[in-house]
Amino acid sequence: MSGNILLIDDEEKLRSLLKRIISLEGFTVFEAGDLKAAAKVLERESIDVVLSDVKLPDGSGVTYAATIHSKYPGTEVILLTAYGNIPDGVQAMKNGAFDYITKGDDNEKILPLLSRAMEQVQLKKRVAQLEKQVGKRYSFDNIIGSSFRIKEAIALAMKVAPTDATVLLLGETGTGKEVFAQAIHNGSKRTGQPFMPLNCSAFPKDLLESELFGHKAGAFTNAIKDKKGLIEEAHNGTLFLDEIGEMHIDLQSKLLRVLENSEFIKIGDTKPTRVNVRIIAATNRSLQQDVDAGKFREDLFYRLNVFTITLPSLNERKEDIPALASHYLSLFAAKTNSRLTGMSPDFLQHLQHHSWKGNIRELKNVIERAVILSEGTELSTDNLPLEFQQSSSNSDSSNATLSAFSLASMEKLHIQRVLNHTRGNKTEAARLLNIGLTTLYRKIEEYHLG
């Protein structure tokens, strides 16, 4: 195992002995006789693990462990002491030390302990790298499109991101509201803190209240232990409430309290819980119309409507379709180890002329299915869903009408290809075909697909 170790001890002979032992295990060892010298090494070198004496000429190793933990969070600290005592050990752990051992008695534990500490360091590095990749994935740079409407939305989101202002995202289903919410979160000072999404339309009223605000043990049947709600889980981070217009009006007053006072009361609790959370809400409805109809609280609407961003539908930014389609082609081709390299002009033309009621989400699904069905190096119109091909046929005077037999043949071939791709997994095939499982079974029987 390799890595950089810093030995801090004012006993030169002990340092030399430990350095020789540790170096033989493949580690690179740096030395310091006091905290001042140690600080210079830490500034100059990338240290993975610090092995430090507790009593040093210019301070305490226990106290210095807290400094290292704060300034170099990726570095682990192991403390050595000639006279171990429980209070020092407890304080060492509180200060972020990896472990605390006694010199002499525990010498045989040093190398195994260093190995475990180094494994922890490597784990932290991998987690940091993954977090960096996730942050990049959900950055504004990764929002695809060069149309005026999408650039306008991105510019507004970038302006509000560094603030703590509540944001309301408006737009049709499938326009990328959660992608924008995550980009706003990652562009704020809360990046690295929790981002908790919740679709308000996915739960009935009582369950949504528990999911959002949490509950105390015994608050209702089956509430056998305390549960944190997503608002509390999002403490210091961002809570994204999708389809906010679907929230029951009785819960809206509790959310309003969070926005106004930064506190809420769990189900079954009698005292409020304080929370520091940013709210980003989204809806495909007109909240103003819901307010007028008495379905949405006017005071909550004004608290949510601090900064509004309207995301354009795909039909309003059709010039972005080639770039979006190319992105999803690359994504799904890589996932399926396909040799696809592009799309035919006719394929792109069909995409441009389609009415995208499902917006980007629908486009993504169409490209995924096309990649699965493709057998060449580029996507062609044969890989498009039947409704695209039927629409094309209806508009083409040279191919006025397809016979019922031709349509059935196309459907049979399409279903067989998808079943081959899913290796007979009918549930997955039904998902990709965007039909019910019972419908798929009926088609399989009708076409004798087996």
Number of helices: 19
Q: Which consecutive residue ranges, at least 5 long each, have pLDDT under 50?
A: 393-405
Strand share of the residues?
5-15%
Tally of discrete structural domains: 4
What is the CATH fold-level name of the largest domain?
Rossmann fold
- Number of DSSP-assigned strands: 18
CATH superfamily of the largest domain: P-loop containing nucleotide triphosphate hydrolases
CATH architecture type of the largest domain: 3-Layer(aba) Sandwich
**Class of the largest domain in CATH?**
Alpha Beta
Approximate shape? globular
How does the major sheet shape up? 5 strands, parallel
Strand order in the sheet with the most strands: 2-1-3-6-7
Global Rg: 30 Å
Structural category is alpha/beta
Query: What proportion of the residues is helical, as a percent range?
Result: 40-55%
Mean pLDDT: 86
* N-to-C span: 55 Å
Concise summary:
With 450 residues, the chain is α/β, with parallel strands linked by helices.
Account of the 3D structure:
This protein has 450 residues and is of the alpha/beta class. The protein folds into 4 domains: 130 residues, Rossmann fold, CATH 3.40.50; 174 residues, 3-Layer(aba) Sandwich (Rossmann fold); 78 residues, Helicase, Ruva Protein, domain 3 (Orthogonal Bundle); 49 residues, Arc Repressor Mutant, subunit A, CATH 1.10.10.60. The chain is 48% helix and 14% strand. The protein contains 19 helices and 18 strands. The strands form 6 sheets. Strands 2-1-3-6-7 form a 5-stranded parallel beta sheet, sandwiched between helices. α4 links the parallel β6 and β7. α3 runs parallel beside α4 and α10 crosses α12. The radius of gyration is 30 Å and the shape is globular. About 3% of the residues have low confidence.
